[in-house]
Design the sequence.
């Protein structure tokens, strides 16, 4: 423990924050597992020199989560709009004209 404290004592504040943040980032991640066909795993192993599969999958999941989240929000907005009462025909046109006349 004393050696570690001495080591940290000599780090600059910035170095310490960067080191601490990288450790916290690793702590906050979780592991998920997925079952894939054996043939696919063999092909991935052959290409692992060229592709960082962990990073590829993380990026895909982040993108997919964002897409689905947007779809859910749109569905919620549609549900709210459907529950709004209908306005009489011509009301919107009337409001637009009033707004234009007041603008100029």
Sequence:
């Amino acid at each position: 423990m004393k050696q570690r404290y001495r080591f940290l004592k000599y780090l600059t504040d910035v170095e310490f924050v960067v080191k601490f943040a990288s450790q916290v980032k690793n702590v906050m991640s979780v592991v998920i597992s997925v079952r894939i066909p054996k043939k696919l795993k063999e092909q991935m192993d052959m290409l692992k020199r060229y592709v960082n599969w962990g990073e590829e999958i993380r990026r895909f999941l982040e993108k997919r989560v964002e897409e689905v989240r947007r779809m859910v929000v749109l569905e919620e907005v549609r549900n709210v709009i459907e529950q709004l009462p209908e306005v009489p025909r011509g009301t919107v046109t009337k409001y637009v004209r009033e707004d234009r006349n007041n603008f100029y």
